[in-house]
Amino acid sequence: MTAIEFNHKLQYLIPALEPFAYKLTKDTANAKDLIQETMLKAFSNKEKFMVGTNMKAWVFTIMRNTFLTNYQKNARQKTFIDTSDNLHFINSTSTKQENKAMGQFAMDDIQTAIENLDDTYSEPFMMYFRGFKYHEISDRLNIPIGTVKNRIFLARKELKEVLAVYADRY
């Protein structure tokens, strides 16, 4: 196969590569870069392509391997080595220092919110929280099982509204 024929077949595959590149990168600009890098590698390694085999599969494999190589390289660049006596690998983007004060504030707010629930909602909710099944709660409180489910649902809904400030933290 001549270089011109190879190049023509390679160019014909670009529309098929675009969705796959976008699926891998989840970004249009990065997908275009990946396609360009894939085409460059395919053309520079055209002598490795065996005529009579599936060119599309060959190019898709190049793209996948290129993406994985770049992803691993980026992951390594975001990691640094701690040169202290412990010699840990630490991911520099996810380290943060926290004390238990925020957790204690949250627990206090949760306890207050539960205490402020109406007894008709808090009692079935707390029984369910402690591990009772719906039918057990129904038997102990002498109310229908549908009422138990409804009260637990309403208690959760009210707690969710009251504790909305913690939605992004936990």
Structure, explained:
There is one protein chain. With 170 residues, this protein is mainly α. The protein folds into two domains: 3-81, Rna Polymerase Sigma Factor, Chain: A (Orthogonal Bundle), CATH 1.10.1740; 101-165, Winged helix-like DNA-binding domain superfamily/Winged helix DNA-binding domain (Arc Repressor Mutant, subunit A, Orthogonal Bundle). It has eight helices and two strands; from the N terminus they run ααααββαααα. It has helices spanning 3-12, 14-25, 28-44, 55-77, 101-115, 119-129, 134-141, 145-162, and strands at residues 79-81, 89-91. A two-stranded antiparallel sheet has the order 1-2. A hairpin with a 7-residue loop joins strand 1 (79-81) and strand 2. Helix 6 (119-129) crosses helix 8 (145-162). The longest helix has 23 residues, at 55-77. It is elongated and about 85 Å long. The chain starts with a helix and ends in an 8-residue tail after the last helix. The model has no long low-confidence stretch (mean pLDDT 83).
